[in-house]
Design a protein that fits this description.
heterodimer; A: Immunoglobulin-like; 22-stranded antiparallel barrel; B: mainly alpha; Serine Threonine Protein Phosphatase 5, Tetratricopeptide repeat
Chain lengths: 716, 219
């Protein structure tokens, strides 16, 4: 009989739920946003039960619950803060009117675009994507080459570095994972273009500011270029490149929480120059050997340790013939040895804090022989940084940090046994807050304090910016800031306590972006103070100047099927009284008008990506001693059309062709003049030309991995 | 006779226990939600389904399945025609959040790994031009990881086949690998019998791929 009883018990048990239902409570209501709009699709339920429903198109909801007593009603909807409300269920129908508060979603909310251009795959309102940096024809895989097709930059063809809004190349500071890079470009001599030391494939995101940037960055008058390296490689692979200018070999090994990549590169232009005629008189073509090691350790859920070490050895030997010189002119021999190490750590502390800590070292040694003169220059830069992000609410975020930068420079004449040097220590503290009044309006205010040991100067740099979003497509931003930068090493070593140069920026920006189109307009004014002045045999910081103008950017990848192109135009009016000029002049690196067009298309039929870029400016200014005034003349306009073609016969093999200055235009960057007037009282002149008419490049990039679709498109 | 009686009763009791497990409130509400999911319906209905799975996951905080299905529903939501890129990304962010939570509850779960790959694949297809290069290796990695865990999982096979098909079409290379994976996937689906509330979706994807492979062979 017992088994029967237990069976009966089971039956009763299984029915018991339906018996106990009894009286239910009806809950209904209406959901509205704080703006009075109804909210459909919200999840409305009693916490800890299955009882609940979704709000209708009209924001209405109603459901029943058999629960009794005090409970918590939860309402959650995309774009709103979750609401919790106490309820007492006792059978009586409950009618509720509920208001949900908008949640600020940083991804979709307004963001500050004044002066800022970000290359990111994730965020919108970006002007370019990381891939653009490597697929822009004419850039030849250099970060600065691609960025110089963006608004606010000028192409100075005989220099190669990045020039921003009437500023010289030193006014752009380069940061690697938030830490300053010393000697970011290879050592060169006047008239021979250089390029940055890092391969763009290292970086997943690039933040490029043409002014008014965050209080987190300092020591640069015009611009900050922030390069962020990839977090984690995802698979084991070996990359092999063979190029007309050299080759490289790279291997990545991925472990469960760690990964390591080792790379060896060798480039030598000697064989290339033996085939393609050059304007320059090379004794030994530029050559470069480098090795890199990249290590990642994801030691906890949010913690990531990144380490990067690289060593480079580069050099060349060139004859430069001045107009007064005979034979081949002066011989310049350069040997450069460069070490860079960067260690950074990112982690989360509790729910509201993230922390970044980092240390970087750049060490540069140049051995330069000019005829019989032997010069040795050495620069060491150490940067330590600790930064905390505090996410107070969804509306307010605070970034604060401390930094120490130690700078050491020495130069010596070997034969004469003469040398001079200096050491400078900079301490800085910064704090900056972003406050979202709504998802349409954000304000950012910050302050940066800096102290230099050498000139004992203490600076307070305020920064402020704001952005307002008129519609999902269009927004406007404003930015203001004060920026300080130490004087050039070559000057500081002469007069150690030179005051720092200062710039003040005002920027207004309008941006319109719709799927497939981006339009951007930006106007700026920049004041310079305490620029170096070397008139009357005296070095001081009495120079000053200004730069102002506007730039336009339009990108479109929707109108012509498969095509992606952008067009930029920049106008800059820059006047400076500095260096050995006694009047305000237009600097040689600041042409008035610059323009560029970049276009690319993937042609599926040919398995190829083809691209072209054209850059133009109205010519660089120069000084003609035959005319009255300083820096009064302008070279003819500069123009360069470059084409590239990447062919992918197999997913893991790329063959890349590129050619710069396809039309073979003879660009002139100014003129050099004889030191003495001839019989007619005229100074003889010779044009300053480019190194060669064109540059051709052919490369084969091969990737070996278990995943056959891996390729090096990022490398080009 | 007595033993027979006892064993009969034991059988009966154990049967009623299993029945009651399948009758449990959790199982029932999951079945209801899965039914809602299978009815091919509009954006509003899909949001309701996702909400229901979310409510279940709130109560059953140790179960990975409600989170998993909520994530999957958000992926389906992101495919709705009327959406712009922002909206698609919002839905996919929800999907990812849920899939990650599910992965915390159930480690090394092949189904969740496939879902994570599927989410990235949806993000990729929302803006292939600019995301293809960055995301396709991630998608491949997740599907590859899923196949390492279980080489016969039909969903892992089907999704990998779909990705391979896309790649083959893009590079104009052969579709043999994609078609082979799709065929394997179909036969795995055939072996998948009554899964209850366990994942069983994706048969249509494999079937579609196999159909297009057959069509190609005939030409």
């Amino acid at each position: 009989m017992k088994p029967f009883l237990s069976f009966l018990f089971l039956v009763i048990l299984s029915f018991s739920t339906s018996f106990s239902q009894g009286q239910t409570t009806k809950i209904s209501g209406l959901l509205k946003s704080s703006k009075g709009e109804t909210i459909p699709g919200a999840n409305v339920y009693i916490k800890g039960t299955y009882d609940g429903t979704s709000s209708s198109i009209n924001g209405e909801f109603n459901f029943e619950t058999s629960e009794k007593g005090s409970h918590l009603l939860v309402v959650s909807a995309i774009g709103f803060k979750t609401l919790e409300k106490d309820l007492i269920c006792e059978g009586k129908p409950l009618q509720l009117g509920l208001e949900l508060k908008t949640a600020i979603d940083v991804l979709n909310a307004v963001n500050i675009t004044a002066g800022a251009m970000e290359a990111s795959d994730e965020k919108r309102s970006v002007v370019i994507k990381p891939l653009d940096i490597v697929t822009t024809a004419g850039a030849l895989g250099s970060v600065e080459g691609a960025l110089s097709t963006l608004p606010g930059t000028a192409t100075v063809g005989n220099d190669g570095r990045l020039f921003v809004r009437g500023g010289d190349a030193s006014e752009t500071a380069i940061f690697f994972d938030g830490l300053r890079v010393g000697n970011a470009y290879g050592t060169s001599t006047a008239g021979v273009p250089t390029r940055s030391r890092f391969n763009p494939i290292l970086f997943k995101g690039t933040f490029f500011s043409t002014g008014g940037y965050s209080a987190e960055y300092g020591q640069a008058l015009s611009s900050a270029l922030v390069l962020n390296t990839i977090d984690e490689p995802i698979r084991d692979q070996t990359d092999i490149s063979l190029m007309t200018v050299g080759g490289s070999l790279s291997h990545t090994k991925v472990f469960e929480k760690q990964s390591i990549t080792g790379t060896l590169n060798y480039t030598d232009l000697k064989p290339y120059q033996a085939i393609v005629p050059q304007n320059f008189d090379w004794e030994r073509a530029p050559n470069n050997f480098s090795g890199e090691l990249l290590y990642r350790n994801k030691y906890s859920k949010y913690g990531l340790l990144k380490a990067f070490v690289s060593h480079q050895n580069a050099g060349f030997n060139i004859w430069q013939k001045g107009i007064d010189q005979t034979n081949r002119g002066s011989n310049i021999d350069i040997h450069n040895s460069y070490n860079f190490a960067n260690l950074s750590l990112k982690d989360k502390l509790g729910k509201k804090w993230t922390i970044d800590a980092g240390a970087a070292y750049s060490g540069n040694t140049d051995q330069i022989n000019i005829d019989s003169l032997q010069i040795k220059r050495k620069t060491d830069l150490v940067h330590l940084k600790l930064k905390g992000n505090y996410f107070a609410t969804d509306r307010f975020r605070l970034v604060s940090g401390l930094e120490g930068i130690s700078h050491q420079y020495s130069e010596s004449l070997i034969k004469e046994d003469l040398s001079r040097d200096y050491k400078d220590h900079l301490f800085s503290a910064f704090t900056e807050g972003d406050y979202y009044f709504s998802d349409q309006f954000v304000f950012r205010g910050g302050i940066r304090l800096e102290h230099n040991s050498l000139n004992s100067q203490f600076h307070i740099s305020p920064r402020a910016s704001a952005a307002y979003k008129f519609s999902p497509e269009s927004q406007m931003s404003l930015a203001y800031g004060n920026f300080y930068q130490p004087q050039a090493k070559e000057k500081k070593v002469l007069v150690n306590d030179l005051h720092d140069a200062r710039a003040t920026h005002f920027i207004a920006n309008y941006q319109f972006s719709k799927k497939g189109y981006t339009f951007r307009f930006e106007a700026f004014h920049k004041d310079y103070n305490n620029l170096i002045s070397t008139t009357n045999q005296e070095t001081n910081t009495s120079g000053d100047g200004f730069a102002q103008g506007f730039d336009l950017f339009y990108r479109d990848n929707a109108t012509f099927k498969g095509w992606d192109y952008w067009v930029t135009y920049s106008f800059v009016n820059s006047q400076r009284k500095y260096g050995n000029y006694t009047t305000a002049i237009q600097p040689s690196f600041a042409p008035n008008h610059s323009a560029s067009i970049v276009a690319k298309k993937f042609v599926n039929k040919l398995n190829s990506q083809i691209g072209g870029s054209w850059s133009w400016n109205d010519g660089l200014t120069y000084d003609n001693p035959n005319l009255a005034g300083e820096q009064e003349s302008r070279a003819k306009d500069y123009s360069n059309l470059s084409l590239s073609w990447s062919y992918l016969p197999k997913p893991n093999l790329i063959i890349h062709f590129a050619c710069t200055n396809v039309l073979g235009r003879e660009n002139v960057f100014g003129y050099q003049y004889s030191n003495q007037a001839n019989g007619d009282g005229k100074f003889a002149s010779a044009p300053i030309l480019q190194g060669a008419k064109r540059f051709f490049f052919i490369g084969v990039f091969f990737t070996l991995s278990k995943d056959k679709t891996a390729n090096q498109l990022n490398n080009l | 006779m007595k033993t027979l009686k006892i064993s009969f009763i034991l059988l009966f009791i154990s049967l009623s226990f299993t029945l009651s497990a399948q009758d449990s409130a959790y199982y029932k509400v999951m079945e209801k939600a899965l039914k809602m999911m299978q009815e091919n319906n509009g954006l509003e209905e899909k949001q309701k389904t996702a909400n229901l799975f979310d409510r279940i996951s709130e109560k059953e905080s140790n179960e990975w399945l409600p989170l998993y299905y909520s994530g999957l529903t958000y992926v389906y939501l992101s495919f709705s025609d009327s959406l712009d890129l922002n909206q698609r990304d919002n839905y996919l962010a929800k999907a990812k959040e849920r899939a990650n939570k599910a992965a915390e509850l159930s480690e090394n779960n092949v189904e969740i790994t496939v879902l994570l790959g599927y989410i990235d694949m949806a993000r990729l297809s929302a803006d292939p031009g600019s995301r293809g290069q960055a995301l396709s290796p991630l998608v491949m990695q997740n599907f590859g990881k899923a196949l390492d865990m279980d080489p016969t999982n039909p969903r892992a096979l089907a999704m990998m086949a779909r990705m391979e098909m896309g790649m083959a079409q893009f590079f104009g290379s052969g579709t043999e690998k994609a078609c082979g994976l799709a065929t394997l996937s179909l036969s795995s689906y055939a072996k998948e019998t009554d899964t209850g509330i366990q994942p069983s979706w994706g048969n249509g994807i494999a079937q579609q791929l196999v159909n297009s492979c057959e069509k190609q062979n005939k030409q």
